Amino acid sequence: MKKSMAAAVFLSALLLAGALSGCASQSEKTGSSAQSAAEGKKEGSASFRTVEEIRNSGVIRIGVFTDKAPFGYIDSKGENQGYDVFYARRIAEDLGVKAEFTSLDPASRVEYVSTGKIDITLANFTVTKERAEQVDFALPYMKVALGVVSPEDKEIKSVEELKGKTLIIAKGTTAETYFEKNHPEVKLQKYDAYADAYNALLDGRGDAFSTDNTEVIAWAKTNPGYVVGIETLGDYDTIAAAVAKGNTELLDFLNEEIRALGKENFFHKDYEETLKPVFGDDTDPDSIVVEGGEAVKN
Q1: Which residues of 171-205 are buried (b: 16+ CB within 10 A; e: fewer)?
Q2: Which residues lie below 8 Å from residue 290, measured CB to CB, with a gap of 6+?
Q3: Residue 150: which H helix or E strand, with range?
Q4: What is the structure's pLDDT at 10?
Q5: Is the pLDDT of residue 6 over 70?
Q6: Tens of pLDDT, residues 71-106
Q7: Which CATH architecture has domain 45-143+238-287?
Q8: Where do the structural domains in the chain lie, given as residue ranges?
Q9: What kind of architecture, by CATH, is found in domain 145-236?
Q10: For the sheet containing 208-212, what is the strand order?
Q11: Sheet containing 80-81, strands listed edge to edge, beginning at the edge strand earlier in sequence
């Protein structure tokens, strides 16, 4: 009897050990599969969401400016408005989701989209070779050059006149890159936000401010006493939406969207709605607007 009981206990122990071994083996396989999936996600889409994921969530996260009227700003009702925002809302509409806006500084545009904090950077983002190494740009919807605004009674009409003077710029902009590369003799005073840069100009902390010509022209029109003495500086560049590097699916959607919108003259409608009230009748929309992703050289 005792021998039978001992044998039964021994057999039970063997069965339990085998079961535990099987569970451990299955756990290792499951863990390994989960790890592989995680690694695949990390290598593939860890830093971005696919179009399907965006649609399933019901929200697309878009980074915009909130202090760069008339391209991206907050109106008196606390709502996002501007040329970029008008386009952003159309993207959301055509995806069948709501647009969730995140306020960006110029220098944060690459980081926010690369780390997945937002799905799209749509903050007056100029396409450059250096930036294209970090993000993927869609087809353009606008074109710009640099401009320089200064007080009317101390107008700066050429880069040569900036020698020995202080030029205000926003960090992370093409103006910063252009002047550091081509005019190291010009003293730069840098700010993180556009609002801070303009306040510095208004307070007389610098002699002039440089950024996209479309922006400084618009600003001067709403700020008496200031004039854009240099309307075109450097080459004309294009403005485009950007997604995380490798997010081909969302990039393809945006490119198809741009081409489709070009057929309905969407960005001219966007201009009429958001930019014309500021620029007036003396500015040719075709000097700014790009339809269908085809930028015309000036």
Answers
A1: bbbbbbbbbeeeeeebebebbebbbebbebbeeee
A2: 140, 141, 142, 143, 238, 239, 267, 296
A3: strand 135-151
A4: 43
A5: no
A6: 999 999 999 999 999 999 999 999 999 999 999 999
A7: 3-Layer(aba) Sandwich (3.40)
A8: 45-143+238-287, 145-236
A9: 3-Layer(aba) Sandwich (3.40)
A10: 98-103, 59-64, 120-121, 226-244, 135-151, 208-212, 166-170, 187-191
A11: 67-68, 72-74, 80-81
The mean pLDDT value for 170-185 works out to 95
User: Rounded CA gap, 45 and 50, in Å?
Assistant: 8
Residues 6+ apart with CB under 8 A from 161: none
Residue 60 neighbours by CB under 8 Å, 6+ apart: 54, 91, 92, 95, 97, 98, 99, 100, 119, 120
Phi-psi region of 232 (alpha: psi -120 to 50; beta: other; left: phi over 0): beta
Name the CA dihedral angle for 202, 205, 207, 211, rounded to a multiple of 10 degrees. -70
Quote the CA–CA distance of 198 and 208 in Å, as a whole number.
10
Question: What token pair was written down for 67?
Answer: 């202090």
Q: Which amino acid is at 34?
A: A
Single out the residue of 287, 282, 129, 268 nearest to residue 214, CA to CA: 287
Check residue 133 and report its DSSP letter: T
